[in-house]
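Researcher: Can you fold this with pyridoxal-5'-phosphate in place?
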Amino acid sequence: MFLISIKALQRNATILRDVRDAAGCRLILALKGFACWKTFPHIRGMFDGCCASGLWEAMLAREHFGGHIAAYSPAYGEAEVEKLCGFVHHLDFNSPGQWLRFRDLVAQQPRFRSGELQCGLRVNPEHSTGSTPIYDPCVTGSRLGATAAQLEDANLEGISGLHIHTLCEQGADALESTLEALEARFGNILSSPGIRYLNMGGGHWITKPGYDREHLVRLVRETAAKYDVEVWLEPGEAAAIHTGVLRANVMDVFESAGHRIAILDVSATAHMPDVLEMPYRPDVFLVEKNAEPESAAPGPAVTLPGESYQLAAGSGPHVHRLGGPTCLAGDVIGDYAFPRPLTVGDILVFDDMSHYTMVKTTMFNGVRHPSIALQHEDGTVETIREFRYEDFECRLS
Ligand SMILES: Cc1ncc(COP(=O)(O)O)c(C=O)c1O
């Protein structure tokens, strides 16, 4: 079960809203990171709208969030552009070629002529600040955003915004050096009177303890004033970090060549693919029922009454290799040491599982999909979605 805390979501959203207000910028939720729309009524007041990766996310934003909708996709098709022009407010293109292809179509739209729809271009400042290539849009040969060289003879008439997204789980110092690279390569475009907005993308770890929010506020204010642009931030992870968990059941435990294996009813590849892609190692807690919670011990993002939580260690006497129920040999979450041997029926809690999990899940192998539940502010738990065989069947034809 994915269990999401409304209180934790509101805590993050409040921090983001306060940063937005202090910086005088605009704030939109990146649906690619978190799109559990039944939570939207609880947080939408803190955002100006959503950013969408294409038509379907934009439709979800219109139907369930409201407010401003900014769309960006590495490539649009004609039918998609036609539909998006009908209701989004920012339509950002990835290359001068895409803009050239759709410029006339967009120019005919009454919403574009009235200024209700503005178009932007994603640019690549070619300044890498991260260390994980799969999450670095500035790698050499990147397909994300136009480089200064690609824009040399480009006709940008009709473009009124620039969009960058280069950060991933980073601080304001990474944004500062990125803005310097942006200025060095695209300062002339940014300074031109036709440019009215700068979208600084996501990847700002704003709600993480230790993030220097004052630094971000200063950078946003300085940039907005220098180029006379409206600045937009579109966080995904920062909105949903530490707001949810994935609860799993131990289905089998056995020995294999000296390794103690625990097969769970959740899968790395189907339910938390970033564990394999990024890769990263989530924190795992063993649930003890009918136990007094240990107040000093750190717990997962969402806890339930009558349970205590023991954080699994990297090494120790009771190491288990946690694996999923799919056929993928590498469907392994990792080796974790527990305070006691695991047995069938034990419950494990994977921490921090709201962002980039639920949006990426698959039904590979027809594995039973985790249900989705909300923990409301008064502590009550409401299951908002349970998956059935028919949900699996209807995805395939
Ligand atoms: C264009 C764009 N905007 C915003 C985001 C959200 O980033 P994050 O969830 O790291 O804040 C992403 C994430 O990949 C993105 O590609």
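Model: Folded with pyridoxal-5'-phosphate in place. The two ends are 26 Å apart (CA to CA).
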